[in-house]
What we know:
This protein has 13 helices and 16 strands. By secondary structure, it is an alpha/beta fold. A hairpin with a 2-residue loop joins strand 11 and strand 12 (377-385). Helix 3 (75-87) runs antiparallel to helix 10 and helix 4 packs across helix 10.
Amino acid sequence: xxxxxxxxxxxxxxxxxxxxxxxxxxxxxxxxxxxxxxxxxxxxxxxxxxxxxxxxxxxxxxxxxxxxxxxxxxxxxxxxxxxxxxxxxxxxxxxxxxxxxxxxxxxxxxxxxxxxxxxxxxxxxxxxxxxxxxxxxxxxxxxxxxxxxxxxxxxxxxxxxxxxxxxxxxxxxxxxxxxxxxxxxxxxxxxxxxxxxxxxxxxxxxxxxxxxxxxxxxxxxxxxxxxxxxxxxxxxxxxxxxxxxxxxxxxxxxxxxxxxxxxxxxxxxxxxxxxxxxxxxxxxxxxxxxxxxxxxxxxxxxxxxxxxxxxxxxxxxxxxxxxxxxxxxxxxxxxxxxxxxxxxxxxxxxxxxxxxxxxxxxxxxxxxxxxxxxxxxxxxxxxxxxxxxxxxxxxxxxxxxxxxxxxxxxxxxxxxxxxxxxxxxxxxxxxxxxxxxxxxxxxxxxxxxxxxxxx
Length: 455
């Protein structure tokens, strides 16, 4: 028996042991205290599965960092990278290359409205950095409004825009960022009882924030179309349209962050499409654009923003902007998603399998406070007490109950994305009905561990 990469189990274990040894000696990991870290080795991956350093196969319900939308080792994308490497490995951003040009065309065809100019970056955080820079230069203003319970990246501006605890060690109060409360009916800040009330009151709060901060000082409002790491809180009907209207009224640039929610994740090419005909001024993307096979991100730009830089140089760029290997991977990814109906599959699996099964699990497991999501983008909110909604882990932290639940799932062959008191069900968009049911059955069993901690 061999793994998908051709290694025997013994050879894979030997290679994994060496990789782990070198990792602990030399690799400095993100978002982690280094001394106590015990990272899992992955030696192979294929489709919706990964193999760990011991040769165990796990169903990847995390899509790694919620980015392998097309699954692992998709042959068309691998072949495109190989072909591009044999043709033109790298070229500077000032020079035209066919992979970048075609990737820009394919992305522009799928973005809402007339967001048809594409600035390429190396990932999501620097896409956010450049979107904010464009908005500030376009408006001549500096402040940017962002919601609590959000994540926009780990670079300086992006992490200050972020509305979760990862911002705190990096926030010195001088980044020009103002946070506000977004809609989240399950934990409403507005004492709302319905989605309509939540929308109305959240928009009133946002407008009040704009007025109190001074509309003439605000360059942009940035929102994840559906917040991802922060909890997959699908905006209630009318909210994003209301934000668009407020931005128009006060001359503020609307930035939609689609780094995690874009490229099929929610069952549409971009999550903002669920809000109808709402079109942002700038849209950031990364992750699913080529499933992370080669680092790539970007900003889709509306004509009126792009026109700001028709005769005025844009003061920004990256050595690897529109890198040929990355954009060739994007071309292959987008074409494969179109040809194989992968976006449609995500919508179908979410509607027929994941959503109904999670709601059924919520009816049987007292540890589930709420399930919510679209496509292959779901959150399971775990609580100690359904009546009080006390979370199973504190905001910004973990708990033994969460650790035990996740460990039980992993031991049974399921890799989950976890944040605070939530389990995120975010498999690749290619997942089959049988694979989805396999993972949900394991989750069902693991949740009995969480149930044991409820009151």
